[in-house]
Design brief:
The complex is a heterodimer of chains A (257) and B (160). Chain A has 257 residues and is an alpha+beta fold. Chain A contains 11 helices and 13 strands. Helices cover 34% and strands 23% of the residues of chain A. In chain A, a hairpin with a 2-residue loop joins strand 5 and strand 6. In chain B, a hairpin with a 2-residue loop joins strand 3 and strand 4. The chains are: A alpha+beta (257), B alpha+beta (160).
């Protein structure tokens, strides 16, 4: 819409998706969450969705302003494929699947196969994102974002950390530090060896592991210099966010024994 | 945009003719319906001067395609204030009484945002007010008077 207001785009046809209830619906069972592409950030913040997907809800809370959260949708965020898209690190960490439809039928693509470059997707012409499929939360989730202020800000660096249980593992998704949302497989693999899952885990025995994990995540980032920040700050920030998210996810929790 | 587009604004249906494809709701409200409360500021969703309610939800009308607003109940500030143009609604009155207006360009958007906030939360704390108004930029007031105006509107409504 900004591109149209500025005169950079002159569409020959438009299709308004706002009034298609199927796109705006979401369904959840014990393990699967299917979120229609037209579900807004505000709706992701609703109690039931936030319980099923706390990482997406936390990401939604950092988006723009009430005005933007009421209008912006998760499908729009995926289709835009901005390296800074707030939902994208969460979807990467959740190994999300995206559902696509066209007049030729429907298909599913893994999120990492859909978002293939900065603002580039593997969508075919005339293909529409209809929904995104993610697992229901089975452990703590964190979304952390660095920007110049709290409201109305595009991420300089952002990170999602997801605790899966079962199977017991922790994954991370990195935003604004690469051409696409990244995972950090080396850091995730190292962490898997360090976590203690007994007694309502995960726990880390050695607090120094938080720093090491942050360093490993930072090493796997691919940040660049641009008008919003520079590569060295982004690398520093993403490591800090990783350590902080891991501390929160492995620290003492209310209700835990 | 086809001749068929009908927008329901402030409780009345309006046939929109002569718009262009992809035109924003903001443009249509101002240029075709002469509803001038929503202001063009940044036209990229940053400033909130063009705030309206779409099915009761606060949005930037610059970011809503007019075609996408068909079938929705659109409410502008004109639809929130009393029909008599000489009268003010309670939020507008609170802004005047607290001096929360300087140049005034952002004010209509702020007032719509405050209406939206108070409809959901009649007694917001300061953090809730700050978050609710985080999408409305004001370069004049420093927001102190705006917070005071919201507090006054809350008190006036509570005493009613």
């Amino acid at each position: 819409m900004v591109a149209i207001n500025e005169g950079w785009l002159r569409p020959e046809a438009v299709i308004a998706l706002r009034n298609i209830p199927e796109l705006r619906a979401w369904t959840v069972d014990r393990v699967h969450l299917r979120i229609g592409a037209g579900v807004t950030w505000t709706e992701l913040l609703g109690a039931e969705l936030a319980r099923a997907s706390p990482g997406l809800a936390q990401a939604a809370r950092t988006v723009g302003s009430p005005q933007i959260r009421n209008a912006g949708t998760i499908g729009g965020n995926i289709g835009t494929a901005s390296p800074a898209g707030d939902a994208l690190p969460v979807l990467a960490a959740l190994d999300a699947t995206v559902e696509l439809a066209s007049t030729d039928g429907t298909r599913q693509l893994r999120f990492e196969q859909l978002v293939i470059g900065p603002k580039q997707t593997a969508l075919e012409p005339r293909e529409l994102i209809t929904a995104v499929l993610v697992p229901v939360a089975s452990g703590p989730q964190e979304y952390l974002k660095v920007g110049v202020r709290n409201a109305m800000v595009i991420a300089v660096a952002s990170l999602a950390l997801v605790v899966h249980s079962p199977p017991q593992r922790i994954t991370v998704g990195l935003g604004s530090v690469g051409p696409v949302p990244l995972r950090a497989p080396d850091a995730e693999g190292w962490l898997a060896e360090r976590l203690d899952w007994t007694n309502a885990g995960p726990r880390l025995d050695d607090p120094a592991d938080l720093i090491t994990f942050g360093d490993l995540v930072a090493a796997e980032a691919q940040p660049i210099d641009d008008h919003r920040s520079n590569a060295s700050y982004r690398r520093h920030a993403i490591g800090l966010l990783a350590a902080r998210a891991l501390r929160r996810a492995t620290g003492p929790r209310a209700g835990a024994p | 945009m086809s001749d068929e587009l009908v927008l329901r604004v402030n409780g009345e249906d309006h046939a929109i003719v002569g718009g262009w494809l992809g035109e924003s709701l903001l443009n249509v409200l101002r240029d075709q319906l002469a509803l001038l409360a929503a202001k063009p500021g940044c036209e990229q969703g940053e400033c909130g001067s063009c705030s309206v309610l779409l099915d009761g939800e606060l949005v930037c009308s610059c970011l809503v395609m007019a075609a996408a607003a068909a079938g929705a109940e659109i409410t502008t500030l004109e639809g929130l204030q009393p029909a008599d143009p000489g009268e003010l609604d309670d939020v507008q009155r609170a802004f005047v009484d607290e001096g929360a207006v300087q140049c005034g360009y952002c004010t209509p958007g702020l007032i719509v945002a405050v209406h939206s906030l108070l409809a959901d939360d009649p007694d917001p704390d300061r953090l809730a007010v700050a978050e609710a108004l985080s999408g409305n930029l004001c370069r004049c007031t420093g927001y102190g008077r705006v917070f005071a105006a919201v507090e006054r509107a809350v008190e006036v409504r509570a005493a009613r």
